[in-house]
Design goal:
The chain has 151 residues and is of the alpha/beta class. It has one domain. It contains five helices and five strands, in the order E-H-H-E-E-H-E-E-H-H. Strands 1-2-3-4-5 form a five-stranded mixed sheet, with helices on both faces. Helix 2 packs across helix 5. The longest helix has 14 residues. The chain starts with 11 loop residues before the first strand and ends in an 11-residue tail after the last helix.
């Protein structure tokens, strides 16, 4: 995979169904095949919510090595989110893996922490995000990120 600086490069937006069907549920395989370091996994889903009818959600989990902040990703997720869906975005800043700053950031959409965490957790589990992050972070550890366009 190409080296890069951390400068909000582009990201692949891919439905979870593609990772499940074409890559055996392995985000790592998708990232290696497409030579990308930045992916946003999307999942439109309808969930029965207690006291309400089925509610539509558009879950998007960004797994990135080249983004310092998720703002550009959030903007694109909101653009892609169907009008009748609640948009739920989570960001896995993989470039921080192994540091004290690493963690998963989940937007608050006021449907309850358990539901939000469950939806994000489903995407993370089904796409084997943890395996992808740990494997890729280990393989890139110690590499110098250089913008080749500067030379």
């Amino acid at each position: 995979m190409p080296d890069s600086d951390i400068s909000n490069n582009s990201a692949h937006f891919v439905p979870l169904s593609v990772i499940m069907d074409q890559h055996a549920g392995q985000l790592l395989t998708y990232m290696q095949e497409h030579e990308t370091r930045n992916v946003v996994i999307t999942l439109p889903v309808r969930i029965d919510v207690a006291g309400k009818r089925k509610q539509p959600f558009f879950v998007a989990v960004g797994v990135t090595f080249d983004f310092e902040t998720p703002e550009a990703l959030v903007d694109e997720v909101e653009r892609q989110c169907p009008n009748d869906h609640l948009c739920l975005f989570a960001w896995v800043p993989a470039h921080l893996f192994g540091s004290e700053d690493f963690g998963i950031a989940i937007d608050e959409i006021r449907v309850g922490e358990n539901l939000q965490n469950g939806l994000v957790g489903e995407v993370i589990d089904k796409a084997a995000v943890e395996q992808a992050v740990t494997t890729l972070a280990a393989s890139w550890q110690g590499k110098c990120y250089v913008d080749k366009n500067l030379h």
